[in-house]
Design goal:
Layout lengths: L4 H15 L5 H4 E4 L2 H12 L5 E6 L3 H9 L3 E6 L10 H7 L4 E7 L11 H14 L2 E5 L25 E6 L12 E5 L4 H9 L7 H10 L3 H25 L6 E2 L7 E5 L7 H12 L4 E2 L10 E5 L4 H18 L1
Parallel strand pairs: 2-3, 2-4, 4-5, 5-6
Antiparallel strand pairs: 1-7, 6-7, 8-9, 9-11, 10-11
């Protein structure tokens, strides 16, 4: 059994409610063993050797690796902190060539926390139609939105369902990381091609997990728990920014989604790798040097606030002490 039909029906209901797009359960949705497998399927189904894949950076490391595995060329659009790590449409258009097959769009973004506004998303969709490329939309953080930001699915724009492969899963919104369940929503014409990759990589996800999800994902209890979790993430985000504001030499762009924040450490006359190493060895706090996520972010580190408020406060207490000792 590739996919438990009641789960596809519940995913269809969920997508209609939160993205405004209806995907027919049997012909436009299938379940994968994690969103990571969904990304793999989408890349290998449509990207060929010699193609070009546009990837805004800094970005999730998997996109670059999958592009290389397909024998394609990654074309970077370096995002800038002074632009709040938002895609500039003129930069995107300059990156398009006759070899462009796909744009990978992670919204909200890991690692920047940026959420693409309506007008920018509209412009991206117009360029996809103008130059005839696919959009691989990694929307796994689509429910994790804060403040006045609003999430817009690529597939919700006119004529874009036919050009979009939406990837999502249960690890983030539903805190089911270890269960490894993801899904793809796309036009019916793409599903047979995607399934040919899927059946030779994973075959299927465990049926008993799919049955449980079909029962629980849209229940009143689950909705309440997800709402509570989103409120907690919003509080953690605010706490992280409050703590960062107390440490001289560190600056950041306000994250609007996901649960990451990119912090610029250049005010300490350091590169991100050096700062992360000191945090680990002297403060026993783990961060990620952003140079591994994009060549243009060598003075940044990524902090995750998928931790308790107590741990966040303790982590920043240690970092504050470490920075004080640098002086």
């Amino acid at each position: 059994m590739l996919t438990f039909d009641p789960l596809r029906a519940e995913i269809s209901k969920y997508m209609k409610e939160f993205t405004g797009v209806y995907f027919e359960p049997k012909t436009e949705i299938f379940v994968t063993s994690s969103a990571a497998e969904a990304l793999n399927n989408a890349m290998f189904a449509f990207v060929d050797p010699g193609d070009e894949v546009i990837i805004p950076t800094p970005s999730f490391v998997t996109y670059k690796a999958l592009t290389a595995m397909c024998g394609a060329t990654m074309v970077e659009i370096p995002l800038r902190g002074e632009d709040n790590f938002q895609i500039q449409l003129e930069d995107l258009e300059k990156a398009v060539s006759a070899k462009t097959k796909m744009l990978v769009l992670n919204n909200p973004c890991n690692p920047t926390g940026a959420v693409i506004p309506y007008e920018t998303m509209k412009g991206i969709c117009e360029l996809a139609k103008k130059y005839n490329f696919l959009i691989l939309a990694d929307e796994i953080y689509g429910r994790l939105i804060y403040g006045d930001a609003k999430f817009y699915s690529v597939a919700s724009f006119p004529d874009m369902k036919e050009r979009t492969i939406v990837v999502s899963g249960f690890s983030k919104t539903f805190a089911m990381t270890g269960w490894r369940i993801g899904y793809i929503c796309t036009s019916a014409k793409y599903l047979p091609v995607l399934l040919r990759c899927h059946q030779y990589s994973t075959t299927c996800s465990p049926t008993f997990i799919q049955v449980a999800l079909a029962e629980a994902m849209n229940s009143d209890l689950t909705r309440k728990q997800v709402s509570n979790m989103l409120n907690e993430f919003a509080a953690r985000r605010d706490l992280v920014m409050q703590e960062l504001d107390t440490i001289p030499g560190l600056s950041y762009s306000i994250p609007q989604g996901a649960f990451y924040i990119l912090v610029n450490v250049s005010g300490l006359h350091m590169k991100g790798t050096e700062f992360s190493q000191k945090c680990l060895e002297e403060a026993y706090v783990a961060t990620v040097p952003a140079i591994g996520l994009g060549e243009n972010t060598d003075t940044y580190v990524r902090f995750s606030y998928a931790a308790s408020q107590e741990d966040i406060r303790e982590g920043f207490r240690r970092i504050r002490e470490m920075v004080k000792n640098l002086a």
